[in-house]
Please model this.
Amino acid sequence: MSVDLGRLQALIRENRFAFAIVIGLLLMITLATAYAGSAPAYKSNSSGPGSTGGAGFSNGTSSTSRSARISSTKSAGSSGSDARSSGGSGAEGDSPSAGQTPGGSSSGGSSDGGTNSDAPSSDNNDPDSDEPSDDDPDSGIPDTSSKVEAVVFTDKKDQTTIPEGKTVFSANSIYSVYICATWKNIEGSHDEVLKLYCPDGRLYQTVYLPFTTYPLSSMTKSVAWSPHPVEIELVSQINGVYPVWGELPVAGTWAMRLTGIWRAEIYLDDNPTCYGQASFTLNP
Amino acid sequence: MVGTTTSNLSMRIGADRKILFDGTYFWAFYCDGSNVVYEKSANGTTWTGAATTVLTEAGSRGFGIWEDGTYVWVAAYTGTDGSVSERRITISNETLGSVRSVSVGTGKEYNPQIVKDSSGYLWLKSEDTNPSFYATRSASPNDDSAWDTTTTLGAESGDYGDAMLIPLTSGKVMAVYFSATNVMSYRVYDSGWSSPQTVVDGDLASRLSGDWGNQHYFSAVADSSGNVHLIYLTSQSPAGHLHYTYWNGSSWSAPTDAYDTGGLKYPTLSIDMRNNELYAFWVQFDYDPYYLIQYKKKTSSGWDSSPTYWQEYLGSPIQLSSSYSDDSKIGIFWQEGTAGPYEVKFDFLNLPKWSYTTGATSLAPPSVIPASGIVLTGGNNTDVCGMSASNGTEAWTPYNTGGTIQSRSPIASVKISSVSTPIAYSCSSDNYLYAINASTGSLIFSKNLGVPLQGSVTGQKNLNIAGVHATNTDKWVIFVGTYDNTTTSANKIYALDAVTGDILWTYTGGGANPNLDIISSTPAIDSSINTAYFTSYSAGGTSQPSLWALNTTNGTLRWSKNLGNISSSPSLPSGNVYVGTNSGYLYKYRSQTSDPGSYIWQYDASSGGNIVGFPWYTSGKVYFATTTTGRVYSVIDNGASVSANTSWGGGAGYVSIASPTAPLVVRDINKAYVGSGNCCLYELNLTDGTISGIRTIGSTVGAPALDTSTGYILAGATNGKIYSFSAPF
Model:
């Protein structure tokens, strides 16, 4: 719920107040549906200007596809408090903990060293719940720290779920390794910067992944790193996190030769802080 | 081998330079037992044979040389008469100057070293046996006829010592020397000598009494900024660790490990003055009775993590010297043998002629505009970069595409309204094909094909089909396939106008056509029969074709074959199509418009796995590489059949190289060049596959290319650099 209100706030900042009101009403309806347990896992990866908010908004509250792996979440506090938080796109000013993401794709969010505890709550592991966690020392305090909860690798891209992930791939058997970074406490429009390092430790590629948590009036933008306007991906919340997908094409690319242990590092916008990193093995 | 000597100290003291490269010839100086002599070589292998005597050297008590581009200055011990002999050689014509007798004082004639400072003054260092160290300077720049009086630099008590002069910038000179058993000191001359100060205290190797002439314990060089870099052997157990420190103009850095292992001897340090990269060489015992010469390079990011084994199976080398780099070469000089006559040997590192930094992994083979002096490449930093073929400087501001460029950006001379224009075609993962003026870096057109492009384009000239623009004087048509990995069945092949990028025809997989999986390769064009050959994946080896022959005039399918996934490109020599698959099979088909039926032959290299790049046919043999198990194969094409080349790889038919690229065959010099996953660029003898040279780059090396105008071998690497090497290695 907090995320949705953040979206509402961002819309207000965009002087689209009337539209935001409508969205807010839709949210209330959607939330009610979700708590009734009737909301299906929903895919919303449309990123073009024509993708409207309705579908995307609804799966922000879907809980049916929640993975236990990422169920340890900061769930409380942000509800109703986004007016005091960084407010949607204000994550740049936050101070995430570096290296929060555990290696590989295993349990995410367990290494938070910041004030926003991610300690799993046995009583309340619903990321969409507004109920404060007993384990959370910051209960009731707005969470303003955007962070990557996990970096997950998979060879199948399915934006409707958070993948379980793998850490070993065969270069001759796959087309791509997909890198799914799950963001918590993030709102607005950002660029995820994915840095991929090949087995000899050299920078293989920097991938810019523009995304937004709410529809924009234009879902493309001009950037310094491309001569053409680039599309902005509308990401939808799943199980309390926003998955942002990157890709390392393997089939027929240089990566086929570069077998060994690869490393992915996740950055946000111009912030030099590494929000998360993980490794996978590419075998011949 | 350069020559033989009866002196067991023929290049004493090796930390000083004894060799040079004048741009054409290597010069090697050594003591033949009674004289300082030199020999020359154009290739580092074949030497003069008859040594030229420069000075008499009595008793193998040391000599030094210094080269300034015009002269070689030589100083030698000639006896205990209170003087050191000195003589210059004019490099251009080898004229020997007068023998000068430089007075240094009786008993102070040992181990002379000669250098020239940046103001042109000559400096001569000598020692006595106490030991104390002395320096004297020429009275005038570039003139060895008169010298100032000798200055005592310092002394070491209780042991023999080493000392070395290092010219700095602004006419300064540094002296580094042992000042006590375990202390190294330095002084700097700047219109006068500074007082002694400590370089290192307590970290030095314990030297063997009486062995001081045989060994040296440190070596130093100055870089282009006047900073001094020094390596030395330490007392750390086991003795013989190599430490490094540098002087920044005012103080020395805390020593660090250059090589954290014991048992090293004869350290000698060289520098590539173009980029201030250091090369440390040393001798190490291998196993009885053999020794090794190894080296490490230090760049701005530090020393190589592990040494390069350069010379092996050496018989007790007891001297080692190196040169400063000259014209991208660093020579190494050593004496070998346990009894006279001793062998004087030489080899050299061929450093990159130049390197260019792109910013991210760049493994595509670079392109060259024929005879234009510009090299062009793309890479994962998404830029198309142009650089000087002669020195690697940036030719124009890199053109930024929005995606990675992983295939060669071929350059064609295309007439636009009758004006010849070198156009580079770069395929980017941002869905665009870019046509860039390769001389200026300006964009001619970009074409959005809707899905990523991975392979490169190939063109056909004089293909006047419908839609070719009027300004396209020579009717160039280019062909490219798509890399849409969201589908295994709906990729496309395009023919486009080479001047405008307009689509002339599209071959679409699916529907009435066979399904078309991703294309990551570059097509081959048989213009004699208007046929383009493409390779593709085949949806994991299902019934989909992976070798395609299309009519270049209209994009209709002539024939196709399902050979399983193919990521490499076809090649088209002599009316045949050669193609290698990801499962390691090499096929030969007849290039023809109608279905040729079965292949002419098939070669099973499945034990090597995925065939990369493209097969290279020359003189009845096909060379190709596999990466699942890193091998470079040579097979004999008998026409209707194929057989392993048992002359290649010691009879195996392949040479094992880690994660190799496709070989670049250069027939003129009978070599093949292969990039590898173990940070080296290999040179193989084309006849038998033996490795004739290695260039260590320090990161995975991409597919090499040949600049036919300079003869340089070009290759990129995962460190984002493009390198140029002269060839043969």
Summary: Chain B touches chain A through 49 residues (CB under 8 Å). The radius of gyration of chain B is 31 Å.
